[in-house]
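Q&A log
Question type: sequence-to-structure
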Amino acid sequence: MDSMELLAHPVRLRIVHAMSGGQTRTTAQLCARMPDVSKATVYRHVELLTTGGILEVVEEQRVRGAVERRYQLRRERAVIDADRAASASIEDHRRVFAAATAILLAEFNAYLDRETADPAADLVGYRQHALWLDHEELLGLIDDMRAAILPRLKNAAAPGRSQYLLSPILFPIGGPEEADNG
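Response status: OK
Response body:
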């Protein structure tokens, strides 16, 4: 199974999110983090991610007669590279986008279900902006966003840090022929 197939599933991508920032977690810890997903489903998807090389076992220990494994994300494998994205079909893109939006909804609902949820204090945002850009302006915007985001992807979990889900979604909603120059 290639990275697009592995990552185009809402549960698997939520596991990847939970493992980001250098986290090591057991499957039981992942189940606790995603109480809306059955344990059997979490275990099955952890196995698929491990077999696919996106997660790796970093420690094993015996717990009450069973082997408990700690997993870590192989960040370099948890991406859909530019070549794979370029070769994807329209249906592949539709499936990946559907998974991404399902994850947004599931993660946002899980956040709101917490007793400590405070969208105003947590600076929650879900704004959308329709921008008019030519090709060069679009490339500049993408470069600016990368410059702001990429250094922060290296942040590890640490006291005082909370994990945030940032989902830049960018696609044309109209073509240049729709511009009203009147």
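Response note: The helical segments are 3-7, 10-19, 27-33, 39-51, 82-87, 90-112, 135-153.
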